[in-house]
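quick one, 427 residues, struct below
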Amino acid sequence: MINVKLIDGKVSFAGSADFTCYNICGDVMLKGKWVVAVSGGSDSMTLLDQCVKAEMDLIAAHVNYQKRDSAWRDMKLVEDYCEQHGIPCYVKLSHYEGKGNFQAYARDFRYAFFKELAMKYECAGVLVAHQLDDVIETYLIQKERRQIPMCYGLAYETVIDGLRIVRPLLSMSKQACRDYCVMRHISYGDDESNFTDDYTRNRIRHQIVEKMSLEEKQLLAKQIQMMNEEKRQLDQTAKQAAQQAGEYLAVDDLLARADGDNVLRQWLLLNNGGKNHSQAFIERLFQRMSKNGNWCADLPDNKRLYCDYGFLNVVDEQLTYSYTLEKFEPLDTPWFKVSAKGTSLQAVSVAENDWPLTIRSPLPGDEIVLRLGTKKLNRWFIDRKKSHKERKCWPVVVNRVGKVILVPEIGCEVAHFTNKPNVFVIK
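---
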């Protein structure tokens, strides 16, 4: 007897009969050419067969990590299936020798391979065989680690590094995939590394998910969907507030909001290259904000979060720039402009022997000799309560012998002051 359930318009199979419904993911699968990620397990072999039955335009992609003897068995059964059905099959061997997180390495390796194929053969994206059990496992991992992810569980469709990812089997249980392969006489392999509890996912799978009934899984999946819908609405409100804040987020405004943690998370997403952060990290930031004062916190990719005078700002610690001008010419950069007009604190008189000029980001120890004495750039930043972001990219004008002759808003070097300046550098 076939047990067929509809969840969000997608078919979920259970039972042990000959399955005859193949278009489980709607029209999206039927448009364009697709890469199908095939490991050789029951999930991916089910997906591949479904795509074949739907007469899709596709290519198969298999990664052999060479970490176990059965990897060669899995590679062969994928190749054999593809040869039998006339499907182009591309295999990539991994030569991992590192000592770090293999799971992270493997994920990056295979998605880079999928993207390479998708671009080369002009595919619409990649189909992967995550299923209902994967959704629940991922959600339970997120819960255990106190993560506030972009999506609870797994999204039906997402984008990774510009690559469109679609997961057609999210409503189909692991057991249903196994039953499907058995009923259709499709060979598949089991990865024996999944039999241990060495990884968090395996532990959660064996100790929790495998003990759940299909009905329990479907109920939890429905609850996860409702959580995601509520999260989308809350995230939209918080994102609007984050966008309005721009590059500088006021701490007092953040602390006054009931959804301050979500606004901070959305603001970090906007200002830190889309990197998400755990709830624990957000809570630590709020603890520091409640104590007032200036402080900083490390972020991924050599970035740092600064709290400067009641405002948060993200600074790229590797940010440096340097422009060389052989002669006067208008220039417009993300950090400054060179113009023939401006204010007195943006002006300098440049002689012939000053060229070429260098306009660069500040260096430790930068100072300028003014009419009233020497001014250290860092001291001026502190006195004027400039944020670390502003300090990082404030323009410094240097002549051919390396002398600082102008710092906009501070003024020009005393020997380069006249009533008829010929260069203006505008911050």
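The first helix runs from residue 42 to 53.
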